[in-house]
């Protein structure tokens, strides 16, 4: 595990212990890693959410069970993510994010997106309202790795957009 | 991109939040993301309760919309008359007639119609649109304080989607005059989501005198927010009209006088209209959840039947009409408080109240070719009920859960009849306790002990009547509410990989059995009864693309207090079994085969006449032409079995017969037929 991951883990644990002390309810958290892949020249965005939260969200939207290994059902999650999460460059221009895929296990849902041929430095604004509209106590942590340094941004239902420069 | 290192912080976080802290979704059940049927371990209070999701429902082969309920193991839905009539239901050793003792709801609206002209608890599901159906939740036995009237043998709750992931348009054509088209779509608006569906259908069936069933059906829903934090307002309208081939006497078929698909009186039939306006509001927070729903439903039914032909009136025949016009209005509200202590224990307390008022004009007329000859009875009924419950659901520790509840119900009947002797007022009230214990899970196995009391209401007319309107003979009044008592031992296991198995052993007692009187077309409050039965259901999904269902149920039903040898309950089904193979996502292909065994029934108290069991095979095959276009072929009764959907034993007299004759009267299951459907999504 790298130092960056350790730091992210530490941040998450502190946030959770604080939340746990305030309320012993299920903690609602999501994490997004934004980093540059030198090999492909793209900015990669990896979302990680608790499977239970995503299931509850989709069920509450559509009243039915979803199978996120089914491309048709993935498209439903994609529509939601595209609406709730985006990156913008200077001047507010949205940076197009391609849907790379999703992996699911019993604990987490991981979504992979990429902004082709775009360095992280182009990202000016992050909009992250994922699950915040559904779970009022949702906390999303966005880790941006650029030029070898990691910066962490916290998003809540009341704070859904931040400028990172 | 390796997700593992990134998931780790979340998993650590998850370890701080335990599965018992589920107050954020007490309304919507937990689901798994595995493509298999959602596990009921840790959720259901009984081995016999369950949920069927939209995909499983969509893969079923259904001849008529009511058959979607057959997704609940052990439940049989058939038709014994014209297609627009309410279905005939069988469950747990009951012939539930048109839905007595099976409480059915659609989005919190009651479907059962009480004090109905034709049958108590009349459940007409012809307005159900499968394209909108998102889930089916079922329970069996009276073990929940949340359900009241008619929920003794079981209950089924259907949920329509507030929004559709994909819009759908479909066109079907089939044999026997079958044609259907439907459109269902959602639009995002500023104010919320507008979801609508329209359906038009025609079907004749295999009958010599075709049903000419014509249906128009529509739903319009505006919803906002989420199912657990939001609201929806829904308008529905349905109209149908049909000709009916009612049951025919076996002797006439044996003698070659009638074809199996013939009718004795081709003017039998009916027309139904239903419009409703309903709303649901839900709010869910971390430690509480509230729900309020309200509805107004207007139902109109005209129904002409003839079960005895020329026995009572050799000149005009015995056809009768049972018109029923009603406005049903009501609401229900519930609030849950959630508390927990430590990691493994949590408790929910829920209180709820519901009220329902029915303003009913119905009657029984003698008719000939749908022309009224005279009025046997005509009634104006006001039936008002109030129910309240309190329920506690507690996770005591890692291996014990309990749900205990108490329900109180009161009902008031006011009947103004065409005969003064049959007018009057009555009231009744009762309390129904219930208790459920769940032990486990150990090795993915849970054990259940359930006890509960329930009830059904009797027809309001019977609670105040003092004379038979036909014969003017004196009548005893029936009680307004009839008690049932159920108990069950159950087991649910997922110990075998990819397999969900549930076994339940139950007993259900009724203080008075409602039985269908075939020659009068009415239900009658009868003697007490006891049913003991066992149910076994399995769902095996060895591969992502294949699943196998196998369900079997046996029931021993007897009247209590009857003379030895005369204690059988006519029409009480003794067994049901289903074996289904479903294949999906095999390249562009999907399909299903379903074998259904409909067990034998005694037709008389002394068991001297019995109906035979029947086995039918249905199937469907789907092929995806493009990403959004699919073609399907459905086949019904593939082996073309000549069996009966229902048999009755009673006296009738055909034209030309000198005297009434006791005989089996049956309605055939539909002969082999196919339908082709084109489905377009966007």
Features:
heterodimer; A: 165 residues; alpha+beta; six-stranded mixed sheet; three-stranded antiparallel sheet; 3 helices; B: 682 residues; mainly beta; five-stranded mixed sheet; 4 helices
Structure description:
- The complex is a heterodimer of chains A (165) and B (682).
- Chain A is built from three helices and nine strands.
- Chain A has helices at residues 3-22, 51-62, 71-84, and strands at residues 29-37, 42-50, 85-88, 98-104, 108-115, 125-128, 139-146, 149-155, 161-163.
- A six-stranded mixed β-sheet of chain A has the order 4-5-2-1-7-8. A three-stranded antiparallel β-sheet of chain A has the order 3-6-9.
- Chain A is globular and about 40 Å long.
- The two termini of chain A are 27 Å apart.
- Chain B has a 23-stranded antiparallel β-sheet that branches. A five-stranded mixed β-sheet of chain B has the order 1-7-8-5-6. Chain B has a three-stranded antiparallel β-sheet with strand order 2-3-4, with no helix packed on it.
- In chain B, strand 26 (514-517) and strand 27 (522-525) form a beta hairpin.
- In chain B, 50% of the residues are buried.
- The interface between A and B is large, with 63 and 52 residues.
Which secondary structure elements does this structure contain, and how are they paired or packed?
The complex is a heterodimer of chains A (about 160) and B (about 675).
Chain A: H1 3-22, E1 29-37, E2 42-50, H2 51-62, H3 71-84, E3 85-88, E4 98-104, E5 108-115, E6 125-128, E7 139-146, E8 149-155, E9 161-163
Chain B: H1 4-16, E1 50-53, H2 54-58, E2 76-78, E3 88-91, E4 94-95, E5 102-106, E6 109-110, E7 133-140, E8 154-160, E9 168-174, E10 178-189, E11 192-203, E12 213-225, E13 230-243, E14 248-249, H3 250-254, E15 269-284, E16 288-305, E17 320-321, E18 324-341, E19 345-368, E20 371-395, E21 400-417, E22 424-442, E23 445-457, H4 460-464, E24 481-493, E25 499-510, E26 514-517, E27 522-525, E28 529-543, E29 546-559, E30 575-586, E31 589-598, E32 601-602, E33 610-611, E34 614-624, E35 629-636, E36 644-652, E37 661-668, E38 673-681
Parallel strand pairs in B: 5-8
Antiparallel strand pairs in B: 1-7, 2-3, 3-4, 5-6, 7-8, 9-10, 9-38, 10-11, 11-12, 12-13, 13-15, 14-37, 15-16, 16-17, 16-18, 17-19, 18-19, 19-20, 20-21, 21-22, 22-23, 23-24, 24-25, 25-28, 26-27, 28-29, 29-30, 30-31, 31-34, 32-33, 34-35, 35-38, 36-37
């Amino acid at each position: 595990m790298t130092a960056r991951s350790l730091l992210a883990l530490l941040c998450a644990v502190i946030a959770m212990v604080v939340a746990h002390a305030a309320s012993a309810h299920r903690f609602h958290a999501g994490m997004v890693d934004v980093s540059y892949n030198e090999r492909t020249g793209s900015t990669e965005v990896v979302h990680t959410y608790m499977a239970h939260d995503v299931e509850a969200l989709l069920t509450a939207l559509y009243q039915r069970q979803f199978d996120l290994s089914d491309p048709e059902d993935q498209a439903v999650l994609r529509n939601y993510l595209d609406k709730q999460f985006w990156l913008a460059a200077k001047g507010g221009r949205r940076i197009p994010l391609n849907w790379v895929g999703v992996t699911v296990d019993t604990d987490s849902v991981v979504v992979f997106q990429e902004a082709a041929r775009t360095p992280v430095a182009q990202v000016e604004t992050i909009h992250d309202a994922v699950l915040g509209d559904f779970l009022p106590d949702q906390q999303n942590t966005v880790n941006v790795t650029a030029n070898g340094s990691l910066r962490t941004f916290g998003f809540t239902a009341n704070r859904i957009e931040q400028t990172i420069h | 991109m390796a997700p593992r290192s990134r998931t780790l912080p979340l998993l650590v976080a998850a370890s701080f939040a335990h599965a018992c802290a589920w107050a954020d979704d007490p309304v919507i059940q937990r689901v798994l993301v595995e493509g298999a049927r959602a596990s009921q371990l840790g959720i259901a209070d009984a081995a016999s309760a369950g949920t069927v999701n939209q995909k499983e429902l969509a893969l079923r082969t259904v001849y008529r919309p009511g058959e979607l309920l057959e997704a609940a193991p052990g439940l049989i839905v058939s038709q014994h008359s014209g297609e627009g009539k309410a279905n005939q239901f069988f469950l747990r050793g009951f012939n539930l007639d048109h839905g007595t003792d099976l409480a059915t709801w659609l989005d919190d609206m009651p479907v059962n119609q009480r004090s109905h002209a034709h049958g108590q608890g009349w459940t007409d599901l012809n307005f159900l649109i499968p394209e909108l159906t998102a889930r089916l939740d079922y329970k069996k036995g009276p073990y929940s304080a949340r359900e009241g009237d008619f929920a003794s043998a079981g209950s089924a709750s259907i949920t329509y989607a507030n929004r559709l992931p994909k819009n759908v348009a479909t066109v079907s054509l089939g044999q026997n005059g079958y044609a259907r088209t439907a459109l269902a779509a959602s639009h995002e608006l500023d104010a919320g989501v507008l979801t609508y569906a329209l359906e038009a259908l025609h079907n004749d069936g295999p009958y010599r005198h075709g049903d000419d069933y014509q249906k128009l059906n529509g739903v319009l829903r505006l919803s906002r927010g989420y199912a657990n934090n939001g609201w929806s307002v829904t308008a529905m309208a349905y109209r149908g009209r049909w000709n009916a081939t009612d049951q025919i006497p076996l002797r006439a078929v044996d003698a070659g006088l009638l074809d199996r698909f013939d009718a004795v009186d081709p003017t039998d039939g009916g027309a139904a209209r239903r419009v409703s306006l309903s709303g649901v509001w839900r709010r869910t927070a971390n430690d509480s959840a509230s729900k309020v729903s309200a509805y107004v439903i207007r139902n109109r039914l005209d129904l002409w039947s003839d079960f005895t032909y020329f026995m009572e009136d050799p000149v005009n025949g015995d056809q009768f009409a049972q018109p029923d016009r009603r406005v049903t209005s009501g609401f229900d509200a519930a609030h849950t408080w959630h508390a927990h202590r430590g990691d493994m224990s949590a408790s929910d307390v829920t209180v709820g109240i519901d009220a329902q008022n029915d303003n009913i004009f119905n009657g029984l007329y003698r008719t000939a070719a749908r022309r009224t000859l005279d009025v046997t009875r005509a009634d104006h009924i006001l039936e008002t009920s109030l129910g309240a419950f309190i329920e506690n659901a507690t996770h005591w520790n890692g291996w014990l859960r309990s749900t205990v509840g108490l329900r109180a119900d009161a009902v008031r009947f006011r009947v103004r009849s065409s005969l003064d002797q049959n007018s009057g007022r009555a009231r009744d009230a009762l309390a129904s306790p219930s208790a459920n214990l769940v032990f486990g899970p150990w090795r993915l196995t849970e054990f259940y002990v359930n006890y509960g009391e329930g009830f059904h209401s009797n027809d309001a007319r019977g609670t105040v009547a003092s004379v038979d309107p036909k014969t003017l003979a004196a009548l005893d009044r029936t009680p307004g509410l009839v008690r049932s008592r159920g108990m069950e031992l159950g087991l649910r296991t997922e110990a075998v990989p990819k397999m969900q198995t549930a076994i339940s052993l139950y007993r259900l007692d009724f203080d008075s059995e409602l039985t269908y009187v075939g020659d009068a077309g009415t239900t009658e409050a009868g003697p007490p009864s006891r049913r003991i039965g066992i149910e076994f259901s399995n769902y095996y999904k060895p591969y992502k693309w294949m699943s196998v269902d196998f369900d079997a149920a046996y029931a021993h039903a007897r009247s209590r207090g009857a003379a030895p040898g005369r204690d059988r309950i006519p029409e009480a089904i003794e067994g049901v079994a289903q074996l289904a193979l479903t294949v999906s996502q095999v390249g562009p292909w999907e399909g299903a085969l379903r074998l259904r065994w409909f067990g034998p029934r005694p037709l008389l108290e002394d068991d001297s006449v019995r109906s035979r069991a029947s086995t039918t095979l249905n199937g469907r095959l789907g092929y995806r032409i493009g990403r959004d276009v699919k073609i399907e072929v459905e086949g019904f009764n593939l082996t073309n079995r000549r069996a009966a959907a229902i048999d009755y034993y009673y006296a009738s007299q055909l034209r030309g017969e000198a005297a009434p004759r006791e005989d089996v009267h049956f309605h055939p299951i539909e002969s082999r037929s196919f339908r082709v459907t084109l489905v377009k999504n966007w």
